[in-house]
Write a structure and sequence with these properties.
This protein has 297 residues and is of the alpha+beta class. Helix content is 45%, strand content 19%.
């Protein structure tokens, strides 16, 4: 069996075959686009981004984690970064809407807590295929088109980035609502490694405010830090430390959006030794100090 390749979104966005589509760092999309039969997707591949793929015309035969799917009009796939993907065939005249976005993009815009459920549908607990009604397919296309238009004109408005964030939120809210209607749990259980990663992420969500070391979570799971890091990297495409940093950064952004918290109080809440250490951590990932981030939002 051949090894899958890894495609990175920002590298694809710079490729002549893909840069025609509206994109910003960590986000690329196109609505009802023809000519989706790209040769690079004919081999097995993984990505560093999440994908929403909605067929609007024609048929696409593909596989996800070696399970084959035939997509027709109004069928939608949710593709996780770590899943092994391959496009086998695309019928003549096929058109599709796709939205691709990286975890870094999500971290950068900040995610409201009540939008997090949509990402459950990217896990192996659920089948990736949703067979939408025409009405619901049109709704996804409508919100995707709002995002597409905003990306294309992001520099034309003084609050272009903020408008993009809110329009992307609208798309995710629609996805979360449709998930309650269409998402079906897979009949099989996650693999042992996938189950470990799910347990790790659940622990991080619960404890990241008070514990920021991989060693702590490895101890909680009764495994070595090395095994935890290697397993998380294999399944999720990111190291345990990177996922931990992502969640701490998300918590920081949520707290910075609350004006009742001072920056010093946020540093205490997230268990940093002092405000200076928190500021260095935050700026390393965002390029902004906590104060600058708060003023810009």
């Amino acid at each position: 069996m051949s090894r899958s390749v890894l495609y990175k979104l920002d590298e694809l966005n710079a490729d002549p075959d893909f840069r025609q589509f509206p994109n910003v760092s960590g986000l690329s999309l196109a609505v009802s686009t023809p000519n989706m039969d790209h040769s690079i997707f004919k081999q097995q591949f993984r990505t560093d981004y999440l994908t929403i793929l909605l067929v609007t015309k024609g048929e696409v035969e593909c596989s996800v984690n070696f399970k084959k799917y035939l997509l027709r009009k109004n069928d939608m796939l949710l593709l996780a970064p770590a899943s092994i993907k391959q496009v086998m065939s695309v019928s003549e005249g096929t058109a599709a809407t796709y939205v691709a976005f990286t975890p870094a993009f999500l971290s950068r815009i900040g995610m409201p807590r009540n939008q997090m459920e949509v990402f459950e549908y990217y896990s192996s607990r659920y089948t990736p295929l949703w067979r939408l009604s025409t009405k619901d397919s049109n709704a996804i296309n409508k919100f995707a088109r709002l995002v597409e238009k905003q990306v294309a004109r992001i520099t034309e408005h003084p609050f272009g980035k903020e408008m993009l964030t809110h329009k992307f939120y609208l798309l995710l809210y629609e996805m979360a609502a449709l998930g309650r209607k269409y998402a079906e749990q897979e009949p099989f259980q996650p693999s042992r490694k996938e189950h470990l990663v799910i347990r790790f992420v659940n622990l991080v969500q619960q404890q990241c405010k008070s514990h920021r070391s991989v060693q702590h979570y490895a101890g909680e799971l009764n495994i070595t830090p090395k095994y935890l890091t290697e397993t998380v990297k294999e399944i999720a495409g990111k190291t345990a430390g990177e996922i931990l940093d992502d969640y701490v950064l998300l918590e920081a952004k949520l707290l910075l959006d609350d004006p009742t918290y001072s920056i010093s109080q946020i540093a205490d809440e997230l268990n940093f030794s002092d405000q200076s250490f928190f500021g260095k951590f935050f700026k390393r990932f965002t390029g902004l100090s906590p104060k600058e981030y708060r003023l810009s939002h």
